[in-house]
Design a protein that fits this description.
CATH architecture of the largest domain: Orthogonal Bundle
Distance between the termini: 35 Å
Strand content: under 5%
Radius of gyration: 25 Å
Number of strands: 6
Largest sheet: 2 strands, antiparallel
Strand order of the largest sheet: 1-4
CATH topology of the largest domain: Transferase(Phosphotransferase), domain 1
Shape: globular
CATH superfamily of the largest domain: Transferase(Phosphotransferase) domain 1
């Protein structure tokens, strides 16, 4: 929190505490209010400069006891050079896996010179020689599995400093754009969760990024079923206004009857936001009335930034289809049609269902099935 934000918090706190007094004289609580103001007054910044030297930059203080954002994470790396190279290599491996085939050779060559040459500034001496040899011999092939062993070694090294957890916290407590690999992991598990709910005849109605949680293994957990409704055995549709502005499906906004198709519209909005760091029906930071957002959902086409791959764009378009019958989702008791989309073409759903498929770098255990290689 910057000083301006802190000042605002203090001012608001003082107002709330002292709002019972208006004239400051006749009111018997005036003295109490002055005490509140005095208690909330901040010392001058020059008085606080000495505190800088007393700050503990260890993991327990910086990450467990204090919220951590990207800036603090970078400051931690600056103070701990042994983790700087491995963390950069980890990020570059993710970028390599997301890169187009024609760009991978150039990316792999840079990673070789940056992290695997003893004279390099960010040389990673902990990497096994056979891992480096494999990359040197096969980088020209630009294969999906080129850096799998390297990433395993990096994460094993970073475990000592709890850097995996630290990086997750950096993402959670700061404004960030989810990589396509993370969006892919989340999307696949959300599909399974939605299918399970719908097979139990439950319409969720409030899927959004805030309600998507991660457990200790990095797997998705759907939260806040306060707006969920269960259909009776002989019931196929329901009517009622429920959900979050910007996420509600067109048929719901029109006041029509609907089924679980509304959940796949919100799934499309959620996936879009994971990738673009903004919703499909408003720009980042835009403050518009709900009726304007409603009009956009009902009438406006969705624009896709360049960061969307063709497959990601295709599945979002299928989920955000304004015509219910044409929308991708739960049909004939399953999500088989959704699973068959090219976005998931290289995913083994059976392994994912069994828990063997996970995204390396999110989970705390190494799994045999690496989703990072699929993008």
């Amino acid at each position: 929190m910057d000083m301006g934000s802190l000042t605002t918090v203090v001012a608001n706190s003082a107002y709330i505490s002292a709002r019972g007094s208006f004239d400051g004289t006749a009111n018997p609580s005036a003295n109490r209010d002055k005490k509140y103001h005095a208690r909330l007054k901040l010392p001058h910044i020059t008085v606080c400069e000495g505190l800088r030297e007393t700050l503990d930059l260890g993991f327990q203080t910086a990450c467990v006891e204090q919220p951590i954002g990207k800036r603090l994470f970078q400051e931690f790396l600056e103070a701990n050079n042994e983790y700087k190279g491995p963390c950069r290599l980890w990020k570059d491996v993710e970028e390599y896996n997301q890169a187009e085939d024609q760009d991978r050779i150039k990316k792999a060559s840079k990673m070789l010179s940056r992290y695997m040459e003893p004279s390099a500034k960010h040389f990673c001496p902990f990497l096994p020689e056979n891992d480096i040899t494999k990359v040197k011999e096969k980088y020209a092939e630009a294969g999906d599995d080129l850096f799998i062993e390297t990433l395993t070694s990096v994460l094993d090294f970073l475990k000592e400093g709890a850097m995996v957890e630290k990086r997750i916290l950096a993402r959670v407590h700061s404004r960030f754009i989810v990589s396509l690999a993370y969006a892919f992991q989340t999307k696949t598990e959300l599909c399974l969760g939605m299918e399970h709910l719908h097979q139990k005849r439950i319409i969720y109605r409030d899927l959004k990024p805030e309600n998507v949680l991660l457990d200790n293994e990095g797997n998705v957990r759907i939260s806040d079923l306060g707006l969920a409704v269960e259909l009776e055995d002989n019931q196929t549709n329901i009517k009622g206004y429920a959900g979050t502005p910007g996420f509600m499906a067109p048929e719901l906004l029109k006041g029509e009857e609907y089924d679980w198709s509304v959940d796949y519209f919100t799934l499309g909005v959620t996936l879009y936001e994971f990738i673009a760091a903004k919703g499909p029906f408003r720009t980042r930071g835009e403050k518009v009335e709900n009726k304007v957002v409603k009009k956009r959902i009902l009438n406006d086409p969705v624009a896709y930034p360049e960061k969307f791959s063709e497959k990601a764009k295709s599945i979002c378009e299928a989920l955000l289809c304004k015509t219910v019958d044409q929308r991708l989702g739960f049909k004939n008791g399953s999500c088989d049609e959704l699973r068959a989309h090219p976005f998931f073409s290289e995913l083994n759903w059976m392994k994912l269902n069994e828990g063997a498929a996970c995204i390396t770098g999110v989970t705390s255990k190494m799994a045999p099935y690496n989703l990072l290689a699929l993008i």
